[in-house]
Amino acid sequence: MRVGSRNHRYRISVVWAGILALPLLAWPARADGGRDLYGGVTCVPGKCSVAAGSVSKRPSGPGKRGHTVEVAQANRSRKHTSAITSDDLEHRSVLMGLFSAGKGIFPSADGKRPRKFKGGAHVSMKVVAQRVVERLKLPRPVIRTSPREDFVQVVHVPTWMWVERRTWAPVSTSAAVDGVEVTATARPRKAVWSMGDGGVVECRGPGTPYSDSYGPKASSPDCGYTYQRGSLGEPKRAFTVSVRVTWDVEWHGNGQTGGVPGLVMAAERQLVVDEVQSVVTR
Hints:
4-stranded mixed sheet; mainly beta; 5-stranded antiparallel sheet
């Protein structure tokens, strides 16, 4: 009986020690370099989720590395690749920073969102704007050519290129965090085409769709290319043609504005290019 009582008292002591330690875990953490660290743990039966982040007190400067997210999509006929990059967005993992600062993160086991830190912690406009920009759903460009992209292109005959207009239009989204609402709008700025034979064409717009009114020998007024050799000697007997559309983002909210240039969406496909031999008869 004494042993059982001793174990019982020991368990009670551990529980009270854990309860008394909880207020210490609720303090906000400060890391070197002037960053406010925040985070939380949400636990539901069988699962715990950890969230952590930081708010920089220093203005961002040049030389920041961006991130790239690539999504591969495939259908029955061909494979496309889409990518989105940014030189102005930066993800930080500060979970280790929270513990190295000697603070920890305050858990919540009620299945709700992590509790906020006390002590006047706040969310900066930069953090809210970054979250909104990440929520933008930019369309993948759809490649169109004349002659049609699923037909053979001809050496020395102008090829017209354009992206579908529905993929070249402003995109907006909004989000609110702790009562701070931000709206971000992305606009396409240019399309850079890599033609597969080493040629590169930069177009300042989506390109002009071909129509019969231009005539069969006309070149595109704003986005075209003329192949000088065929693709039959290439792997798969085709050139891999890609287009990268650059988007610029502007955001505003709570009386502040900002921008994120250089988001890129890309697509590619195969183009077969052949030579047409002329025969002269007398």
